[in-house]
């Protein structure tokens, strides 16, 4: 009996461990199987979507890239589809081991004063993406057929890269971009307003507020930024703090919904319905995760229409 129980525990652990994290870069298929080989056959007829994962650390390295299959399943649902006769491939880009110069210091976020000293993790992620783009270009993939995308900190990476290096890629799709914690929720934007909330953020974390401002100013300097930006008002991170993106010419911002339904379909991740969080605990899944819910595939035609406009 003990042996049977041990086997069951091991099987449960192994399946849970597999589901818990994807810690490798590579092309993904519709079944979410990852191929680590960096090979592209018939490259001139491929569209490469580089997907950047989120992060639970702004500047430090993390243990995982993708926490389970949910973050990537919607983008993977596009694999094999064709746009203007070109076939879509999705490459999961694992950059969790990168960290910024200040991320190497313990307990720095509560007391450091700006400016940031050195190179940030976001800057290193941008550089890593640019290097990967050049790898694909060297294989024969047309630059205009390479699209950068990502969720959360991966979305923020997408904004930082496309705002500075739009000539290096075909386009960008930012999904609930955020890299500065649950600002909307933690600093009660809905209750006290954006300006007062950001003042409180600056009082508590002056360095992080200054770094966020610096990066937003870099993004806003774009004279033209033809990208897709998805946001959700009940995203506890940047959900109520993203109106600035509409100041940039050619950005197409899509507010996903006002609640947790898209086109009448209730949004779920697995068996869990999305909901508004009342605390700063796990609260998963919530508005920040809506691009990972199957209901988000409603936007697949919009995404493909955007890609078509970029690869002409």
Mind telling me which CATH architecture this is?
Answer: 3-Layer(aba) Sandwich
Largest sheet: 9 strands, mixed
CATH level 3 topology? Rossmann fold
The number of distinct helices, counting runs of at least 4 residues, comes to 9
Instruction: Name the average pLDDT.
Output: 90
Number of strands: 13
Instruction: Name the CATH class.
Output: Alpha Beta
Write down the domain tally: 1
Q: Roughly what fraction of the amino acids lie in strands?
A: 15-25%
| Principal-axis shape | globular
Would you list the SSEs in sequence order as H and E? Answer: HEEEHEEHEHEHHHHEEEEEEH
Spatial extent as radius of gyration: 20 Å
CATH superfamily: Alpha/Beta hydrolase fold, catalytic domain
């Amino acid at each position: 009996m003990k042996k049977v129980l041990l086997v069951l525990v091991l099987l449960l652990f192994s399946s849970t461990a597999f589901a818990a994290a994807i810690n490798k870069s590579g092309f993904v298929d519709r079944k979410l199987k990852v191929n680590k080989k960096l090979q592209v056959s018939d490259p001139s007829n491929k569209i490469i979507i580089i997907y950047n994962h989120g992060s639970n650390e702004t500047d430090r390295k993390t243990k995982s890239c993708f926490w389970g299959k949910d973050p990537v399943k919607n983008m993977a649902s596009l694999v094999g589809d064709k746009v203007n006769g070109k076939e879509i491939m999705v490459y999961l880009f694992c950059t969790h081991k990168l960290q910024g110069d200040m991320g190497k210091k313990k307990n720095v976020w509560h007391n450091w004063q700006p400016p940031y000293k050195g190179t940030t993790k976001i800057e290193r992620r941008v550089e890593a993406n640019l290097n990967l783009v050049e790898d694909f270009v060297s294989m024969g993939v047309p630059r205009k057929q390479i699209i950068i995308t990502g969720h959360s900190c991966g979305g923020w990476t997408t904004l930082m890269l496309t705002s500075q290096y739009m000539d290096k890629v075909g386009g960008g799709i930012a999904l609930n971009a955020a890299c500065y914690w649950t600002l909307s929720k933690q600093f009660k934007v809905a209750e006290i307003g954006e300006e007062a909330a950001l003042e409180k953020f600056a009082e508590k974390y002056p360095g992080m507020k200054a770094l966020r401002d610096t990066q937003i100013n870099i993004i806003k300097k774009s004279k033209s930024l033809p990208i897709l930006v998805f946001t959700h008002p009940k995203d506890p991170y940047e959900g109520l703090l993203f109106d600035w993106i509409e100041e940039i010419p050619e950005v197409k911002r899509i507010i996903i919904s006002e609640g947790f339904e898209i086109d009448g379909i209730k949004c779920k991740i697995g068996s869990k319905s999305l909901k508004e969080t009342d605390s700063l605990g796990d609260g998963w899944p919530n508005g920040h995760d809506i691009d990972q819910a199957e209901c988000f595939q409603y936007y697949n035609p919009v995404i493909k229409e955007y890609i078509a406009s970029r690869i002409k």
